[in-house]
Amino acid sequence: MLIKKPILLHYYITYSCNCCCTFCDIWRTPKYSSGHDAQIQDVEKNLKSAYKIGTRFVDFTGGEPLLHPDLPFMLKAAKSIGYRTSITTNCKLYPKRARELAGLVDLLHFSLDAVSPELHNSIRGCNVFSHVMESIDTARFLNEKPDILFTVTDQNADHLEKLALFCKKTGLLLLVNPVFNHYSINRLEGRSLTKIFDLSKSQNVYINKALLKLNLAGGNSIRNPRCRAVSSTVVISPQNELLLPCFHFYTEKFPISTSLEKLFMTKSYIHFRSMQGRFDFCQGCNLNCYFDPSFLYKLDRYFMDSLLAKAGYMWHKHIKPFFVPAHLDRRPADKIMAEITETTADKTCSRHIAAI
Ligand code: SF4
Ligand code: SF4
Predict the structure, then answer these.
(1) Pocket mutation for ligand 2, best pick of 282, 291, 295 (most atoms within 8 Å of C-beta)
(2) pTM for this prediction
(3) Using one digit for the tens of pLDDT, what is the confidence trace for 223-246?
(4) pLDDT tens for residues 151-176?
(5) 250, 161, 166, 178: which is closest to 212 by C-alpha?
(6) Does 276 sit in the ligand 2 pocket, CB within 6 Å?
(7) For residue 210, which of 307, 282, 315 has the smallest C-alpha distance?
(8) Crossing angle, helix 129-141 and helix 94-101, to 10 degrees?
(9) Which atom of ligand 1 is nearest to the CA of 151?
(10) All domains of the chain, ordered by start, with CATH?
């Protein structure tokens, strides 16, 4: 049965970040540089209100969510209401804060975009590769189950296979996230998309083929929109505003002075829902974070591909480990990574570093 209500809450708790990734516009866009971080009282209120509307998954995001001192309290509040929680971190602060977060994050994502420190650090605009390695060791020690989130660009697509091998050895799942085109960022070249398709049969890799097919089709069409950003997702800013129609291209921000339920009945909200995917800026859009849930709101080939991808994730993450014991490499992550990069001479990597 198709979902009717919004299922996902993207809660932006801060716009601050301690990295400046090449594919991210948050750190370089003036509209994100002012204002305060999310207040715990607002977060608690909105979590309850959004749950009544139907949201069941909350992603505490930013900026770098671990920069917010109250993140553990927000996660606890969400869990006590019944949410499944997720965060994605660049890992700079994870080793320091891991114990505060242990047991509170259902989907914990560590960003890692290359097997070489040089390329990863230059993509991320900060020296963070060693923190990712340390975070993996820390999470394994605490029995947390992180996934590696690899944002694929044309610069790092050659690293896909080696990163998949690293994940296999360490027992982590590799989530492949094709970079989306927005502002100065261009969509992936066909060569990079082919590399992702080639990897899609690998056991420990999550690739939503619906996203790849959307990319190959040129993204969203405003004549026949596939986007269901407003129907599927609630987006809240650190300054306690509802952003519409989506975070990256919001044109309206409504202060949440009353409950979300009331805002959802306003003419403005209904207008944005009727216009999702139809604005001029929606042409060619391929924003993963909105299409991933959007695919579940219309019965078509994207729906089926997306459902299969999610079933595969559940199988590899939660079911298979009970039946098939994994033979994991228990050495520190940096040793495993060094071995992978040494045994597979990394000529392409150095070429890409030079290009950045
Ligand atoms: S870590 Fe995240 S928020 Fe920070 S610059 Fe990179 S992509 Fe943007
Ligand atoms: S198509 Fe893209 S830009 Fe338009 S509403 Fe959907 S997610 Fe936002």
Answers:
(1) 282
(2) 0.93
(3) 999 999 999 999 999 999 999 999
(4) 999 899 999 999 999 999 999 999 99
(5) 178
(6) yes
(7) 307
(8) 30
(9) 7
(10) 8-328 (3.20.20.70)
